[in-house]
Amino acid sequence: MQVTLNNSFTVDEPIDRVWDFLSDPRKVAPCMPGAEILEAVSATEYKGAIKMKLGPLSVKFDGEITIEHMDPATHEIRIVGRGKDSKGTGSASMVLKGRLTALPGGGTEMTSESETTINGKMAQFGSRMIQDVSKALYAQFTAAFAERLKADTAGRPAPAAPQDNALSMGQVAGAVVKGAFNRLLGKDKEKA
Amino acid sequence: MSATTSKEMGGVGQSVKRKEDARFIQGKGNYVEDIYFPGMTYGAFVRSPYAHAKIKKIDSSKAMKVPGVLAVVTAKELAAHKLDWMPTIAGDTQAVLAGDKVLFQSQEVAFVVATSQAQALDGVEAVEVDYEELPVVIDPFKALEKGAPILRTDKKDQKSNLIFHWEAGDAAATDKVFKSAPVVVSQKTHYQRVHPAPMETCGCVANHNPATGQTDIYMTSQAPHAHRTVFALVAGLKEHTTRVIAPDIGGGFGNKVPVYPGYVLATVASLLTGLPCKWIESRSENLQSTGFARDYHSVTELAASKDGKILALRVKTLADHGAFNAQANPSKWPAGLFSICTGSYDIGAASVAVDAVYTNKAPGGVAYRCSFRVTEASYIIERAVDTLARELKMDPVELRQKNFIKKEQFPYKSATGWEYDSGDYHRAMQVALDKVGYAALRKEQAEKRAKGELMGIGISSFTEIVGAGPRKDFDILGLSMNDGCEIRIHPTGTATVRLGVKSQGQAHETTFGQIVAEELGIPVDNIVVEEGDTATAPYGLGTYGSRSTPVAGGATALAARRIREKAKKIAAFLLEVSENDLEWKDHRFEVKGAPGKTKTMAEVAFAAYTNVPPGMEGGLETTYYYDPPNFTFPFGTYIAVVDIDKGTGEFKVRRFVAVDDAGTVINPMVFEGQIHGGLAEGFAIATMQEIRFDEGGNIQNGTFMDYLLPTAVETPHWELGNTVTPSPHHPIGAKGIGESPNVGSPAAIVNAVVDALSHLGVTNIDMPVTPWKVWQILKEKGIAQ
Q1: Would you call B50 helix, strand, or coil by DSSP?
Q2: How many whole angstroms separate alpha carbon B556 and alpha carbon B574?
Q3: Rg (CA), chain A
Q4: Can you give B168-194 as a three-state secondary structure string?
Q5: Which of B456, B295, B307, B304 is nearest to B385 (CA)?
Q6: Cα B601 from Cα B73, distance rounded (Å)
Q7: Is B370 a known active-site residue?
Q8: Are B261 and B345 in contact (CB under 8 A)?
Q9: Which ipTM value was assigned to this complex?
């Protein structure tokens, strides 16, 4: 199944700082709950892994991340990720296009479009929750991104990646339930 | 048709209370899950998450370390015994465990055997499989396009995804009629993939005793003898030391006809370990991997005269079979009885063509009370007739009445070669029209339409075909579809009846006893009916396609009559008269003209063991194998009335009148129960059920959260009517009611919803007709509130 997500968020840092941070997967990966970079194969290819828990489903995807396009002049980046669950329960691949725009106040806006294809158990059982889970993950990512970027700028060591690499089920479940109710009550304007 | 026996005797026509219910409602039934043996092991499957992928490696090392796990079986181990592939009922082969690649999501990849169910499941979680995804084929039309990935690379001569091309009728004659016909209509329909979802999932307990060489297999089987023979042919078991026992079955509906890998692996595990092995699947496994139903894409054309006489029928169908051709059809009939699609109408020329394809989905196709594709056939003709009525601006009832086969025309030979035994379609239609108040409803519809309210009336006048089948043309894997009945009358006058069919809820323990009560004058409470154990039951082809009453019922009546013939000789001897002086009156023997001189069957039975005429063999028992001369053709008219809510697109079935004719009715209460159940299923199919896949072949609704079953809240109130037109060739004139309600109801509901919207130009809505689909139409037409 395919999931399309278009999002944007802003950080209080100048565009060049954000670009430097963003173009280094080893700095960005820990922002995603449960994710880690294992090895740099080349300047643009990395081996990584991400652990996720979705209700009764627990998956660990091992895969490759490739930076296919990176333009410091236009601040555009295209990343392709491909992963398989180590036990053989499924696979996911994602094409992510990100673009930075400098904001008048000195901050930066990051917009992203992602196309994710999911096959296997997650697509069987998780399909109705994937949109909500993706939103919850994105929220966690942007919060972590802002925090780690700040620490990086200040030269402080990065905060320890969460001990528990698996997403807190409660957090995501809460977001999912909330999302369902919001849609029911027509409060979610994004849902077509 | 009123009963001839008293209520106590419980003969044909009495609403005898179901004997099986006592144990069921007390929770004292004996289902496969209740079977337990000391030392029993348990098996569970590792299943494919992908619809199409190469298997690069299976690593079971971690699984073998899980406490309680005894073995992990893969295709490699099965191949050593030549058991990795097995034949299907349709003459194809099916992987017992996937070898080089998987072909559908949820396909069986490995079997973990452990000392408890929970440990087996833990073992499954620990097996690691490395897959390489392959391009997926989900759309059956795309499956036939040039360049589509070939799915069955295991079959040497398979150059495409086409399984077969099958035709019936006369294409040349039909095309000729179409060329010159004044009116031609075409109706495209998709009868969607659905699943019967019986309350009990599939499973078995295999128990091989190495000391005696005996193998007992307790199995959710609708056809124990056929399964035993298949096991013998495939797994090298010997039939005389193999016993298949189908205990109580919690619903079959065709789901328990195929041989599933679980049965084979549990048996193999027991044979190899000498320990009993149980396999029971979970609900989602049942929905995602076992025999689905339908998935026929059809284009149905009718040629007619301007005044509404149907001249010809032409049907082209694309059948989506899934990854293996595993549908349960008689061997010479790859599209089952689909050519019954001329329905209740006198059509001079017909041509039917079916192309079947492989796709990356679970295998199956024949299930859910389909009567061997009769549900699909009946749906397309009843939808096309409504389309023709609209084209001709004719009332759909009038068009049907004009084209019905007339009572005088039976036995009627259809344009596709079926000989319909009997029917009175005009009468059933009239009873339905009167019961629903048709004229008043049309008037109400016109008034509502003027006010902008949406009300629809849908008709379905079906004729279906059941009772497979005559030996000369019908067999399953070569096994003739006749059936046996053994009757044994004991000295004290009670009887044991054994059958080769197998009830999964159809009340055989009651109704077959009633046939014997009727024929032999033994009270039904003194008769026990046994089925399901191949060690004792006479050979039979099992229960599906509503064949029990037509075939086993015939065997039962004829077995009883043979007993009565012998009993007459004994009675004559006891009464010291000649046989010709005796008559069977009021369910006992009476000397003609001497009303006091009688002998009951009970008295004769005692004599059979104590005092037979000299020279006669003692005892009073027989086994009769009945080869039905023809199928039987139940029919009916269903009328649905719906009201659509313009705000939500929801519609309520305000009324549903179902008039059925299945010939002689053995037990009116059981008859009605069968109809209620089938109508609920037809309603579910028409309004809420569909097995859906995304473009990656991931099943979207493999649990009851998303695959819907109707509850008492949604299900309409059914109004039943009944006409009786006996079958002239059946020993008691009965035709069988099991499938009719599922056959006839979906078209009535869809026709009603389309009728409600036809004035806006709507001609078709494919099932399931959901509020979302209807609302989208309302929005498009600008009338959504």
Answers
A1: coil
A2: 26
A3: 17
A4: EECHHHHHHHHHHCCEEEEEEEEEEEE
A5: B304
A6: 57
A7: yes
A8: no
A9: 0.80
Alpha carbon distance B200, B83 (integer Å): 27
Whole-angstrom distance, CA of residue A126 vs CA of residue A132: 10
Residues in contact with B778: Cβ distance below 8 Å, sequence separation at least 6, in sequence order: B644, B646, B649, B784
Q: Containing H/E element for B146?
A: none
Which residue in chain A has the smallest CA separation from B699?
A: A124
- Minimal CA–CA distance to B649: which of B767, B779, B457? B779
Please give the single-letter amino acid code of residue B485: C
CA A81, CA A21: separation in Å to the nearest integer?
18
CB contact under 8 A, B127 and A120: no
Closest CA to B12 of B661, B530, B520: B520
Q: Which two tokens stand for residue B457?
A: 């009336």
**Nearest CA-CA distance, residue B265 and chain A, Å:** 22
Across the interface, whether the CB atoms of A90 and B49 are under 8 A apart is answered yes
The size of the A-B interface in CB pairs under 8 A is 56
**CB-based burial label for B263 (10 Å; 0-12, 13-18, 19+):** buried
Shortest CA gap A151–chain B (Å) = 40
Tell me the whole-structure pTM to 2 decimals: 0.93
Q: How far apart are CA B471 and CA B480, in angstroms?
A: 5
Whether residue B131 and residue A118 make contact (CB cut-off 8 A), yes or no, is no
Q: Per residue of chain A (192 residues), what is the pLDDT tens digit?
A: 888 888 898 998 999 999 988 888 888 888 887 888 888 898 889 898 888 776 677 788 899 989 899 998 999 999 898 999 878 889 988 898 999 999 998 899 999 898 888 899 888 876 667 777 777 777 888 888 888 888 888 888 777 665 444 555 555 566 666 766 777 676 655 444
- Give the number of other CB atoms < 10 A from CB of residue B276: 23
Q: Quick check: A88 and B702 CB within 8 A?
A: no
DSSP H helices, A10-129, are: 15-22, 25-28, 121-125
Got the DSSP string for B82-139? T-SEEE-TTS-EEESS-SSEE-STT-EEEEEEESSHHHHHHHHHH-EEEEEE------
Residues in A closer than 8 angstroms to B51, CB to CB, are 119
CA distance B461 to A45: 66
Nearest CB neighbour to A91, from listed B128, B133, B694 = B133
| Tokens linked to B632 | 């039987």
